[in-house]
Structures are given as C-alpha cells and as structure tokens.
Predict the 3D structure of the following.
Amino acid sequence: MSSPIVSGILSYGMSGRIFHAPFLSTDPAFKLKAVVERHEKKAAKRYPDIISYDSIDAILRDDEIELIVVNTPNFLHYEHAKRALEAGKHVLLEKPAAATVADVRELFAIAREMDRRLMVYQNRRWDSGFLSVKEVIESGRLGELIEIQFRMDRYKPQPGVKFFKEQKELPANGIVYDLGSHLIDNVIALFGRPLSYDKVTAIHRENSEVADYFSLRMTYPHQLNVYLSASLLSIEPLPGFVVIGSLGTFIKERTDVQETQLDTGMLPTDPAYGMEPGGSEGKLVTAGVDGAKVVEWIPSKRGGYIELFEAIHHTIRNGALYPVTEEQVVWQLGLLEA
C-alpha cells in the first residue's frame, strides 16, 4: 500500500472544518498534518496533533506536505493555488477555480510545468440528489430527454458576512460564481459542453452590490433544453431537480444531508453518513399501457463525498484521470465569466 498523502488546509473556516478535515483525517490514504489559522486556533480542539501555521508561507515551506487544499475566499483562489503549485504541492482547489478562463488555464499550465496535479473541488457531483438524478437519466426510463431544471435556492434577504461574495470590486463574486459553479458543473458532468447558452442575472435585494439571482439556459443536441437558476430570495424553495422526458418525469427535492451531518460532528466513517431520511425519495411518473399515470418513489442514492477523496488519492498516487477534468473546468469558467 502506498504511503498516505500528507495534506494541509489553507483555512479552517466552514469549508475546512466541514468539507475537508473530516475526510483527510479519517481516510487512511491521507494524513492531515496542518492548517493555517491566522487568529483563533480552533483546529486542535478537534485534531490534537495538528500543526496550526500562522501564515500560508509557513505551510508552503513544510516539505512533508504534498497536498494543499486551497479553500480561501473566492477572489484569492487563483493567487493561492498558483503559490501552492509553484511551491511544488498538489492542489485541491475549491470552486470557483478562478474568476476567468485565462486564470484557470494558467493554473493548469503551471501544474503541468511543475508535474503536479490541480484538482477542482466540485463536491455536488456526489450529492445524493444528483446521484439519484444521474441514475434515473442513465436508466433510459425517461425516454428522450426534453427539458431539465436544476435549482439551488436560498433565503438571505440581507448581504451575508462573507464579504468576498458580496462586494462587486472583488472578482468571482455573487450568486453566479457561488451557486452557479455547482449547477453548471452538474450539467457538464452529465452532458458535456452545451451547443449554446443564454444567461440572465439580476439584483433584487435592496442593499446588494452583486447578483443575487441568475438563470441560465443551456441547449444540447436533440433539442434538449437545460434550465439552471438560483435565488437568494426564495423563501419556499422549489424542487432542486426536475427532468422531463418523452416517457416520464422525475422530480427530486434537494435534500442531501452530508453538510448537515458533518457540521454536527458526524464522521464520514459513520454507517449513517450520506443516507437521506425517509420521505426524501424522488418521484418518478411514467405512463402505463392504458395511458394512466404510474407513480414510483425512487430511494435516494447515498451521498458520497468520500468518493471525491478516493479520486484525489488515485490521481496523485496512481496517475488516474481526476473526474473533474481541465476541459470541464474551462467550460464552466467560460459560462461563469460570460
């Protein structure tokens, strides 16, 4: 068995605490060695043996660390990923990977030059809802696909405390880069690059400087239309997934439990991890032989962020192709930037 991948995290805020540290600390393929904490030192309360560095420079000077998780604010992703790659580290880069196509192309070029791996963290490919939708689509039970709707709605009538998402002078701001990066990646993972697209953004909150609503239509062969939307003023969210085909319709609420479980301290090794509760099933409606509706409730797939970290391990240790490819990331940034 290969040695564990010694890893460090650039921030122990929400994403470091919830989305990265629990996996890097419990998966034997990794060794979580260090985090960067500039102010309050919180990580040691959960991980007694961890090193808490005061700066990014300090963690990048740690020669034992092979993998750096870049989970700093959006506008710093390009700068910090570049510094980590040039320091000879593999990089797991939070979405959005950058603000522009030019920036992300440069990062991938640096990774190749340094013979390191740049991997973009698109965890929503392993949400239970998306995995359920993917399985139903690939089963062929819906027939020829006609229309797909993916949504991510929130209710945040006032600008949030994460300033980097709310200030127009900072790149990669607003709901398009925040939630749109998830939605676009889901569609690209299923269907690849669209034939065409059109995008609408709007500002509805009284004190907002940045887009708090967006809608994107992506067209694909055989007249398939995919509609993506997100709003920060949706007090009653609509179903997160709607897929309409010539033989049936599938509807699924966005009820993945992984973030909540991790936030409350559940480890990915828990048998209940990733399992949605009863009542979260997707609704599949097809036509019977007499034309009557046939309704089936499809159990949710188990959420699997664990699989993302397995992919990281195989990419670094075995040279496997990381499932979120450079080409897909470039396509996504093109749509975000447009």
